[in-house]
C-alpha cells in the first residue's frame, strides 16, 4: 500500500463525519439565533404592553381625582 493511498483513504473516511458535523452545527446555530430573536421580540412586545397599561391606569386615575 502506497502512502498516497493511505492519505486519500483517510481523507475520504473523515469527510462525511466533518460534513455531518458542519450541518449539525449550522442547524443548531440557526435554532439558537431564531430563539434569541423570538425572545427579543417577545420582550419588546411585553415592554410595549406594560407601558400601555401604565398609561391607561394613569389616565384613569387622573379622571377620578377631585379637581378642587
User: Using DSSP, what is the number of strands?
Assistant: 0
Number of helices: 1
- Strand fraction: under 5%
Biggest β-sheet, characterized? none
Percentage of helical residues?
Answer: over 70%
List keywords for this structure.
single chain; 68 residues; mainly alpha; 0% strand; rod-shaped
Structural commentary:
- The chain has 68 residues and is mainly alpha-helical.
- It has a domain of 28 residues.
- Helix content is 91%, strand content 0%.
- The protein has 1 helix and no strands.
- It is rod-shaped and about 95 Å long.
- The N and C termini lie far apart (103 Å).
- The model has no long low-confidence stretch (mean pLDDT 90).
- Keywords: Cell projection, Cilium, Flagellum, Membrane, Transmembrane, Transmembrane helix.
- This is Flagellar biosynthesis/type III secretory pathway M-ring protein FliF/YscJ.
- It comes from Leifsonia aquatica.
Write the layout of secondary structure elements.
Layout: H1 3-64
Amino acid at each position: 500500500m502506497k502512502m498516497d493511498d493511505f492519505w486519500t483513504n483517510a481523507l475520504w473516511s473523515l469527510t462525511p463525519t466533518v460534513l455531518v458535523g458542519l450541518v449539525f452545527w449550522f442547524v443548531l446555530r440557526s435554532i439558537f439565533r431564531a430563539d434569541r430573536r423570538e425572545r427579543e421580540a417577545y420582550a419588546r412586545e411585553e415592554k410595549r404592553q406594560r407601558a400601555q397599561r401604565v398609561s391607561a391606569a394613569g389616565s384613569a386615575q387622573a379622571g377620578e381625582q377631585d379637581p378642587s
